[in-house]
């Protein structure tokens, strides 16, 4: 049931976790982002309501700088986060230690990145007008330092990205000591990616399936370098905010490494991260990613990076507290599934938000030593099977059953097979096929959802319409089997309702299909493809109905009510209003209709094959 999990994950994301608030302080995953995720609330833009002041503009080894957060207008606040980082090197790394938190019952320490007391957060939701903390400088000169602050005024109002002035190391401090691993700078230029080398000098995962490179929605390429045990990756996506590459040991999202290209306006950063089980993505240090290039040009997000073949992530699994991190290893010598997920960033930040569209998952595990072309899909296999069965049933057989019953009762020269008219054979087989495919499709989707009706609101309409269609088709088949005899008085009533319900089922099924594409986690391209397919199908269906009605009318007018016309040489009809082969409906039209049905089914199947 593994293949189901990406959707379950997305549905969970849509329904549960972004309603958290944190009266007891900020969780550890905000160490890197400083962004409260309060039901998707965006940061306030005003930068003058709160201020961050420091007691001195320079520091010495082990000296203390007092940091005060308050408001010139004495505005109150409930939550706060404070951290310090160098403005020169490894800006993601937190430096120094906080002590002397005032008021002590309002604030707590958070240990970020394995460093004790490297961040301060609130511990309750009581209101304050000012907080003060002492920052103790490290024992080495780490260059200029700045304090980042987020202030939470109320659940729906927070101020992100407040800063102190830069605090310089005292000149007598000695030279700046570089960290052992220096984070690479990100170049803001990406030369075009050559996708024609896919399968040759590099391996690729491209989506959708028919695309070859620049026409793709998203794509990733990789090239292993065995000399220095690194791999070079290239990412491309026609996406708004961010594009994430996930390395996963299974097809489930969770416990995966992610490397993301994330845009804040036109500036793009590259972030290392980790997908927690069924929860959220936490940002991790990107220290070991090198040769970074990232840019967004004309709505196209691109980036390149080199990663070591083996990467170890020390991840804090617990959201709060001082528990030790858990190590995870992502080794490209193991085959892994690649994920591509994309979504929006929070306003004015490069913090990646939830992805509402389903992620692309490579269909098989990727062997990074082979330069192969891999393809992925956003739809789990059972959902694809569901869609295919329903499309064949409703864009195909249902229409055929209706058209045959409506216009071809007099067709096929009234020939019979096994004592039953041909039209009725076709009608009955089509109707039964519709029934069987619909019920199988329903069973597949129920298996996929583990029998649970989805909570996803965007799927609600599709589900209600779908159940209506299923009920109608069951009722129709049952009624068809139990139909009253030809002589029965209720037969005309049966005919009327049988016809009405059949037509209703077809129309509702078209609506059901349209609403299927509105389920939020389908990509925009899929929605467009699907809606157009159904629109064209419906247009043609109506067109054919007009042709059939027109033909019937024309045939009866011309052939029956103008008997004796030389032109048509139909003398023998003059006294005979019974239909016979000359008034029989057009076989050419039926042939065209069947071609149309075949095309519709093909288009619908393309959907499940391409995406
Ligand atoms: C403050 O937090 C407590 C739980 O710690 C909660 O019961 C209370 O409703 C919160 N108050 C406000 C105003 O949010
Ligand atoms: C592989 O890495 C080595 C050492 O860094 C480098 O000299 C070489 O050019 C790289 N090979 C490729 C194909 O990039
Ligand atoms: C980065 O590489 C160094 C040395 O190879 C290693 O000690 C460290 O754990 C790595 N860090 C990450 C986050 O992979
Ligand atoms: C990946 O492909 C290489 C080269 O064909 C092969 O030697 C290796 O065994 C494969 N790796 C796995 C895990 O199958």
Automatic annotation (TrEMBL):
<feature type="transmembrane region" description="Helical">
    <location>
        <begin position="535"/>
        <end position="554"/>
    </location>
</feature>
<keyword id="KW-0964">Secreted</keyword>
<dbReference type="Pfam" id="PF02014">
    <property type="entry name" value="Reeler"/>
</dbReference>
<keyword id="KW-0813">Transport</keyword>
<dbReference type="GO" id="GO:0045087">
    <property type="term" value="P:innate immune response"/>
</dbReference>
<feature type="transmembrane region" description="Helical">
    <location>
        <begin position="429"/>
        <end position="447"/>
    </location>
</feature>
<feature type="transmembrane region" description="Helical">
    <location>
        <begin position="588"/>
        <end position="610"/>
    </location>
</feature>
<comment type="similarity">
    <text>Belongs to the FRRS1 family.</text>
</comment>
<keyword id="KW-1133">Transmembrane helix</keyword>
<comment type="similarity">
    <text>Belongs to the insect defense protein family.</text>
</comment>
<keyword id="KW-0391">Immunity</keyword>
<keyword id="KW-0929">Antimicrobial</keyword>
<dbReference type="InterPro" id="IPR005018">
    <property type="entry name" value="DOMON_domain"/>
</dbReference>
<dbReference type="InterPro" id="IPR051237">
    <property type="entry name" value="Ferric-chelate_Red/DefProt"/>
</dbReference>
<dbReference type="GO" id="GO:0042742">
    <property type="term" value="P:defense response to bacterium"/>
</dbReference>
<feature type="domain" description="Cytochrome b561">
    <location>
        <begin position="348"/>
        <end position="554"/>
    </location>
</feature>
<keyword id="KW-0325">Glycoprotein</keyword>
<keyword id="KW-0249">Electron transport</keyword>
<dbReference type="InterPro" id="IPR042307">
    <property type="entry name" value="Reeler_sf"/>
</dbReference>
<keyword id="KW-0399">Innate immunity</keyword>
<feature type="domain" description="DOMON">
    <location>
        <begin position="216"/>
        <end position="343"/>
    </location>
</feature>
<feature type="signal peptide">
    <location>
        <begin position="1"/>
        <end position="21"/>
    </location>
</feature>
<feature type="transmembrane region" description="Helical">
    <location>
        <begin position="494"/>
        <end position="515"/>
    </location>
</feature>
<dbReference type="InterPro" id="IPR006593">
    <property type="entry name" value="Cyt_b561/ferric_Rdtase_TM"/>
</dbReference>
<dbReference type="InterPro" id="IPR002861">
    <property type="entry name" value="Reeler_dom"/>
</dbReference>
<dbReference type="Pfam" id="PF03351">
    <property type="entry name" value="DOMON"/>
</dbReference>
<dbReference type="GO" id="GO:0005576">
    <property type="term" value="C:extracellular region"/>
</dbReference>
<keyword id="KW-0812">Transmembrane</keyword>
<dbReference type="GO" id="GO:0016020">
    <property type="term" value="C:membrane"/>
</dbReference>
<keyword id="KW-0408">Iron</keyword>
<keyword id="KW-0044">Antibiotic</keyword>
<feature type="domain" description="Reelin">
    <location>
        <begin position="16"/>
        <end position="185"/>
    </location>
</feature>
<dbReference type="Pfam" id="PF03188">
    <property type="entry name" value="Cytochrom_B561"/>
</dbReference>
<feature type="transmembrane region" description="Helical">
    <location>
        <begin position="387"/>
        <end position="408"/>
    </location>
</feature>
<feature type="transmembrane region" description="Helical">
    <location>
        <begin position="459"/>
        <end position="482"/>
    </location>
</feature>
<keyword id="KW-0732">Signal</keyword>
<keyword id="KW-0472">Membrane</keyword>
<protein>
    <recommendedName>
        <fullName>Ferric-chelate reductase 1</fullName>
    </recommendedName>
</protein>
């Amino acid at each position: 049931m593994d293949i189901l999990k990406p959707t379950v994950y997305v549905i969970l994301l849509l329904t549960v976790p972004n309603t958290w608030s944190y009266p007891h302080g900020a969780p550890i995953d905000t160490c890197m982002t400083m962004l409260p995720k309060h039901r998707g609330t965006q940061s306030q833009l005003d930068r003058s309501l709160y201020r961050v002041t420091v007691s001195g503009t320079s520091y010495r080894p082990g000296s203390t700088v007092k940091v005060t957060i308050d408001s010139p207008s004495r505005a109150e606040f409930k939550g706060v986060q404070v951290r310090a980082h160098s403005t020169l090197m490894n800006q993601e790394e937190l430096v120094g230690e906080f002590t002397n938190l005032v008021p002590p019952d309002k604030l707590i320490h958070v240990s970020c990145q394995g460093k004790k007391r490297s961040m301060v957060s609130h511990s309750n939701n009581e209101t304050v007008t000012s907080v003060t903390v002492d920052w103790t400088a490290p024992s080495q000169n780490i260059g200029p330092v700045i304090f980042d602050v987020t202030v939470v005024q109320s659940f729906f109002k927070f101020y992100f990205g407040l800063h102190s002035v830069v605090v310089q190391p005292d000149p007598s401090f000695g030279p700046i000591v570089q960290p052992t691993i220096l984070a690479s700078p990100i170049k803001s230029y990406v030369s075009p990616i050559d996708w024609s080398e896919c399968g040759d000098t590099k391996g690729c995962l491209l989506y959708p399936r028919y695309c070859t490179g620049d026409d793709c929605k998203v794509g990733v390429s990789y090239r292993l370098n065995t000399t220095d045990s690194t791999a070079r990756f290239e990412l491309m996506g026609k996406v708004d905010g961010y594009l994430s590459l996930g390395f996963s040991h299974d097809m489930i999202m969770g416990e995966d490494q992610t490397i993301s290209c994330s845009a804040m306006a036109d500036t793009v950063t590259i972030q290392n991260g980790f997908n927690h089980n069924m929860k959220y993505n936490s940002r991790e240090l990107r220290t070991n990613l090198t040769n970074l290039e990232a840019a967004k040009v004309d709505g196209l997000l691109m980036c390149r990076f080199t990663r070591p073949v083996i990467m170890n992530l020390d991840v804090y699994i617990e959201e709060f507290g001082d528990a030790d991190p858990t190590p995870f290893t992502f080794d490209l010598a193991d085959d892994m599934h690649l994920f591509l997920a994309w979504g929006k960033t929070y306003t004015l930040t490069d913090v990646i938000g939830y992805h509402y569209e389903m992620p692309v998952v490579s269909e098989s595990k990727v062997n990074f030593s082979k330069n192969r072309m891999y393809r992925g899909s956003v739809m789990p296999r059972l959902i694809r099977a569901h869609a295919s069965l329903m499309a064949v049933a409703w864009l195909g057989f249902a229409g055929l059953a209706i058209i045959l019953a409506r216009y071809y009762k007099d067709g096929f020269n009234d020939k019979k097979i096994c004592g039953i008219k041909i039209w009725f054979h076709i009608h009955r087989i089509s109707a039964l096929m519709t029934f069987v495919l619909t019920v199988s499709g329903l069973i597949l989707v129920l298996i996929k959802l583990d029998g649970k009706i989805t909570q996803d609101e965007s799927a609600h309409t599709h589900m209600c319409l779908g159940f209506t269609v299923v009920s109608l088709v069951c009722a129709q088949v049952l009624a068809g089997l139990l139909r009253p005899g030809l002589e029965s008085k209720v037969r005309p009533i049966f005919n009327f309702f049988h016809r009405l319900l059949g037509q209703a089922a077809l129309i509702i099924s078209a609506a059901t299909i349209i609403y299927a594409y509105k389920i939020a986690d389908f990509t925009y391209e899929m929605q467009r493809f699907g809606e157009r397919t159904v629109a064209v199908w419906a247009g043609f269906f109506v067109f054919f109905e007009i042709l059939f009605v027109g033909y019937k009318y024309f045939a009866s007018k011309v052939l029956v009510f103008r008997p004796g016309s030389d032109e048509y040489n139909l003398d023998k009809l003059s006294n005979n209003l019974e239909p016979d082969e000359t008034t029989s409906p057009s076989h050419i039209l039926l042939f065209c209709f069947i071609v149309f049905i075949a095309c519709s089914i093909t288009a619908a199947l393309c959907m499940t094959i391409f995406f």
